[in-house]
Amino acid sequence: MIHHKTNLLNLLFLVTTLYVTAQSNLNKSFNYINKLYPNREITSKYHNNWTQEHYKQRIKHFKSNPLKFGNIVFLGNSITEQGRDWNEKFNSVGINNRGIAGDVTDGVLKRLDEITYYKPKTVFILIGINDLFSLHYEDTDKRFKYIKMVPSTKYIAKNILKISKEIRRKSSETIIYVRTILPTRRSFLKDDIITTNNFIKAFESKGVYKVIDLYSEFVDSNGDLIKELTTDGVHLNEDGYEKWSAFEKTLINTFK
Q: pLDDT tens across 106-130, in order?
């Protein structure tokens, strides 16, 4: 009888130890995953006042809907976020929307840990228009005050290169595409968009990313965003998204 009691106690001890160890490992894993995302205090000094809060809400959403290993990531701002379900647009699976309305290149740099941890097959980047709005903050809607102005068009393009290098450094097998910044119907942004896009194209020679010239697909003869494809001169309507997906569909299909 004593022998059986001893065996039972040993078994209970073993089960308890295994449970405690598993729980500890689970907690460590959860804490590590949680650290992949910026905390509520981390935003960019170049975010406008509205984005300061929206950025935090989107990060919370990303935590609740984490990436899966080896998927496709669309990384960007409102133009990406408002695409919503990109899988539906491309008749695909495994495309993850990591757009944050109002985001800037510095904001993307602060949220790359999630991207690199999950080692995506491909990352498609479209970012920079809000940085350019920051350069001309006095011409934008006064509700959206910028904390600080982005320094220059070259700074924006160098940040896009920096984003790409960081992804490549931590996820060497990930293929990176950078989309040129879309045209707008805001005349004060025209020249800066072209200048930034020229830098983006020039930096392709660094061998870190490949360029997708989305700008050329959406620009009209006056250098504006095609009127029929936009809701407000900056963002795309459904026809705009349909044109985008038709343009990139063959490329996306190679990563299914």
A: 999 999 999 999 999 999 999 999 9
For 115-153, letters b (16+ CB in 10 Å) and e give bbbbbbbbbbbbbbbbbbbbbebeebeeebebeeebeeb
pTM of the model: 0.86
Cβ 109 vs Cβ 57: under 8 Å:
no
**Tokens 């044109």, residue?**
243
- The answer to whether 229 touches 237, Cβ cutoff 8 Å, is yes
Q: Could you count the other beta carbons within 10 Å of the beta carbon of residue 39? A: 9
Are 102 and 125 contacting, i.e. CB atoms less than 8 angstroms apart? Answer: no
Q: Which residue's structure tokens are 């349909």?
A: 242
> Which residues are paired to 74 by β-bridges?
97, 124
Task: Dihedral sign for Cα 162, 211, 149, 55, please.
Answer: negative
